[in-house]
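Batch manifest, entry 17 of 40.
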Amino acid sequence: MFDISEELKKLPQKPGVYLMKNDKEQIIYVGKAINLKNRVRQYFQSNKNLTAKTRAMVPQIVEFEYIVTDSELEALILECNLIKQHEPYYNIMLKDDKSYPYIKVTIQEEFPRIFITRRLDKDKAKYYGPYTDGLAVKETVETLHKLFPIRKCKKNLPKEIGKERPCLNHHIGQCLAPCSGAISSDDYKVFIKDAMDFLEGKHDGIRKRMEAEMAETAENMDYEKAAALRDKIRAVQSVAQKQKMANMSVGDADVIAMVRAFHECLVQVFFIRDGKMTGRENFTMTASEEQSRSEILTAFVQQFYTGTAYIPREIILQEDLVPEEKELLSEYFTGKREGKVIFTVPIKGEKQKLVELAHKNAMLIFEQFGEKLRREEQRTKGAMEELRQALGIQGTLHRVEAYDISNTQGFESVGSMVVFEDGKSKNSDYRKFRIKTVIGANDYASMKEVITRRLNHALKEKAEGKNSSFTRLPDLIFMDGGKIQVSAAEEVLLSFGMNIPVCGMIKDDKHRTRGLLFDGEEIKIPYTSEGFKLLTRIQDEVHRFAITYHRKLRQEAGLHSVLEDIKGIGEVRRKALMRHFGSIEDIARAEVGDLLEVTEMNIPSAEQVYAFFHQDELQN
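Output type: structure tokens
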């Protein structure tokens, strides 16, 4: 058993990260400290100075771990990574995890390329962005390739010059074919310079040069080329109009403002690059009502910028960050950017107007989607709370797992496990089980095998020190079925010494969700309630997941039992035949000509398949 008082004595007086766990060994809070001994001990002393959130959390702590780091800065980075990995219940959480597109110009190459990327590497290339509108970025890059004959290929030039003939882009006038040595690096880079000017909003020089060239070609009666230049000029004007915006004194910065209602928060970020607003984005966060705006903004800045590829020179904030965190974040961001990063809280002037604009936008978005957020809350966490109350379960209901068995008259029996956390499906934690020890249709024995394997896997990974989805045990288990399925799960849990409540999801005569079987009694839940709707979603999902896996195995078994016996028909052709015909029966009825309609088939293989299914006819 973990003795908290004894373990507190062993804590080192060093910087690091601590992880608080509940009785299910779930990580419920992650924090960092410059002195682990002093910080962790504070949780278990007098609760007079503790916040309401911390007072609610401490009674649930039955164990803690810690990781020592060399500095508080390292602890900051580790803390952020662990919060994102474990999503602890009592941490302020950034719900959105977006990566943004950039336009990359490989100026470090002798013949540079221009393309879209979501990674920011330290490779001496030039990056433009981030942009929030992926479609607009795609259109911009396509326009660039139409305006300037820049290569799209990934060839290693000049190493591969002359090894292959120029591609189609060269023949339609959209590439100067540096791969064939048709243009020097210096001449090619003139077009790259024009493209970069275009991305930076310097359109006038490009447009005037094109207009002069168009006039000259028209005078020489080269009307086809003049028309092509006219179209390019229109494209430049169109993009220039979209990018048009008053120049700001703010060069490279993000502007951050927020609004909140109860525990829901919405943060608005304006991205400003080279004095132009390149986009904006909204982020939702959860935080307890007692936490200050400064704490929430600090958590947002920490989680957002430790995960994003790009950090601007200046971060303009509606309110200042928590003082002890601000200096640390500034140091970390400056090192990551390899240049000074400053935090600004403007009181007046253009920057203050930008913050006000971001706040107004956040208010509008929150008013627009506030009701939607509340409905979503009721549909998910609210529905879980309704189920908890209906069953009379103590504590919180965070994670539930549901199980189902699927087979066809005992053939290819499979089990499925789906996971819902806070009322939302967690697809990454879904698991499939192929029944190994049970012969025939035996739901009781099959379910015992599935639950046993699931729990054995959890114990094994815990013993190995791993922390995967299998090690997170549920607060409640749902079985797709009645007394037989429930008793199977309860018997296994008893043998493992685990006390996890188990419910049966009962269906009516029309195979629709009816209610829950719990402690030998049927629990009626109002059909119109969010709890009942969630229960229906869980039951439908676990059944769908089991059926899908069973059908896959049944199809694979069909492929193995018949098509694998045909000489010359490998895996690729077997799959191609099934995709084309849909069933073994249709393949068996097909003529040689029909079989040749499958791209992967040739005459010998088609004749081989035909002969296999028509052996009796051919012998006669």
